[in-house]
Amino acid sequence: MQISSAFRQVLPYFPLQLQTALRRIPEEQAVQIQEIRLRIGRNLHIVTQGTERVVTQEGAFASEPADGLRISRQLMDTVFQNLSSHSMHSVLGTVRLGFITVAGGSRAGICGTAVMQQTSLDSLRAVSGINLRIASERIGCADALIQRLGGIQYLGGILLAGPPSSGKTTLLRDIARILGERYRVSLLDERGELAAVSNGVPQYSVGIQTDVFDGYPKAQAISISLRVMSPQYIICDEIGSEAETEAMLQSLHTGTSFIASAHAGSADELYRRPQLRLLFQSGVFHTVVMLHSGAECGAVAAVVPVRQAG
What we know:
Layout: E1 2-5, H1 7-10, H2 16-23, H3 27-30, E2 33-39, E3 45-48, E4 51-55, E5 61-62, H4 73-83, H5 88-95, E6 99-101, E7 107-117, E8 120-133, E9 136-139, H6 143-149, E10 158-162, H7 168-179, E11 185-189, E12 197-198, E13 201-202, E14 210-214, H8 218-228, E15 233-236, H9 242-250, E16 257-263, H10 267-271, H11 274-282, E17 287-291, E18 300-305, H12 306-309
Helix pairs in contact: 8-9, 9-11
C-alpha cells in the first residue's frame, strides 16, 4: 500500500510556536496522524491510531499533560484566522455547518459560541476548539475489500459504515480510483475531502474516467450527474438526508450503482434510521461494509448483506 498524508500541508496554518513542534514529529509517526486537536487553555493533542496524545515543544508525545504545549486564546485565534484566510465571510457557509475544508482535503471542525439569528445559526465567535482532521491517500487500501466482495465486477450497491475516523473517506477515494480506471464514475465531493480539487484538478488519484462534482450539495449532484454525465457508478460520502434519499430513489432503474458511506456503530443502527432503511428496502444498497476504528482504522469488521442488517 502506498501512503501519503496531508500532515505537512496543514502546518502553515499554525503559528510558529506550534508549527515548530509539529515539524519535529518524526516522519514515520507523522504519516499516521489522523487529527490535530486544539482546545482553549488545554494541551495540543494529536490523534494517532485512535488515541489522543499530548505534544511537547520538542515534537515528542508526552505522558504527562504538564509537559505539553498549551493553547492560548491568541494561538487559537491565529489558527482560526489562518484557516479562514483572514476572511470569516468567505467561509461562513461551511462554518455554519461546523467545518472549514483546507488545502489537500483536510477538514477543520470548529466549535465555539454561536451567534444566532432568530432560530438559525448565523455565525460563530470566541472559537474554543478546532479539530483538524488530516486527509491521507492510501493507494491500494480498497484491494482487500474488493477481493472479499468477489472482484470489481461485484461493486455497487455498497454502503460503508463506521464511527467517525474509521477510514470511510479514504476507502471511498481508493474505490473511486479503482473503478474510475475502467468505468464512468461521478464522485460527489460536497466538502472537498474526497478529491481535494484545486483549479478544477483533483489533487488525489481518483481514476481517469472519474468526474468530480466539487462543492455541490449531494442531492443536486446526484440529479445533475445522472442527467449530464451518464455515470455507471456514483460515489459519495455521509448520506442520510431526506433530499439525498429522494434523489437516490429517483435514480432507480437508470443502471447506475451507488457506493456511499454513513456514520454508524453497527448494521442494526443503520437499519433503524428511516432514510437508510428506505434505501435498503428499495434496493439502492444490497451490502453493508462495517469498518473498525481506533488502532484498526480502515480495516473491514464485517460484510453484511442488507437482508441481515435488520
